[in-house]
Amino acid sequence: MKNVRWLICGTVPEAEFPLCMGAWRVDGDMLVPEDVEVCCPGEAPAIPPVPVRRGTPALAASAILAAEALGSEPPAVLLAGDCGDSKGSSALYEFLEKWLALPGADSLHGLTFHYLFPSVDGHNRILMALDERTAPRPLLIADAGFMYAAKMSGYAARWDIFTPDAGELAFLADEKAPHPFYTRGFLLAEGGEAPELARLAHEHGDSARFLLVKGSCDLVVEEGRVVAHADSPCLPYMEPIGGTGDLVTGLLTAYALNGKAPREACLSAAQAARFTGEAACPTPATAVAELMPFIGEGIRRNSDEDLIS
């Protein structure tokens, strides 16, 4: 695939899903292949639509709809099937390492990494492939499993944006933890400890330059210091909906693709997600796919707020 401006990389929980890359569209609660190529050698199986429940499909759907609302060309998506045995993720790492050296990757402006088996070797090979390019370095965003790999590798500081929730932030702040499961208990204490955890993560070199910390009050952190926050509208019913964090990262991807600098893109994503939720009037039973039709309204309201302020 040529002239890719932004690429989202992640997995779907289906073992037989092929490694594939290209343009997708959102149709109701489904992510539908539009111009997608199978990347693995041999027989080219049909690429099925993917339900937008949570995870990388929810992130990709959010980014595609948000980019359209902002008037940008939607990002491309590189997907692999992986049910936890790492095979799909390993194939994706290997393919991406080689693709980054091709002329078609020269136009790449940014990469968003999501649910992938956290392989330090795979992560480091991607960084080395980026270092070997003559083209300008793309903006790098990591969420979920790939954020774990970035921290575990010791090269987290080379990343532009991480998007942790409270538990993931505690993992980043714990310089001794090899995985979120082993985060020391005192770092998970209740209270407003996020600014201190962000500072610790930066101090230990386990943080990207920017953090978008997702929670009841979303924080934008730059080099260990809180520089902005979003806490209104307050939508408690958004908390139990699986995939709302993926929604925020998708919006962040779209704003960055549209040219916003990291700090502004983080704040806009956090705020637009809240306006999206308010427009959708969710209940605890709402599925994340039901929020998708309201992304355009959330972005419009965020733009209106920017004009007012």
Can you describe this structure?
The protein has 309 residues and is α/β, with parallel strands linked by helices. The protein has a single domain (6-308), classed as UDP-N-acetylmuramoyl-L-alanine:D-glutamate ligase. Helices cover 38% and strands 18% of the residues. The protein contains nine helices and eleven strands. The protein has an eleven-stranded mixed sheet, sandwiched between helices. A hairpin with a 4-residue loop joins strand 9 (210-213) and strand 10 (218-222). The N and C termini lie far apart (41 Å). The model has no long low-confidence stretch (mean pLDDT 92).
Helix/strand-derived class? alpha/beta
**Low-confidence segments:** none
The strand line-up of the biggest sheet is: 4-3-2-5-1-6-7-8-9-10-11
Major sheet size, sense and barrel closure: 11 strands, mixed
Distinct helical segment count: 9
From the alpha carbons, calculate the radius of gyration and give it in angstroms: 18 Å
Q: Total domains, how many?
A: 1
| End-to-end distance | 41 Å
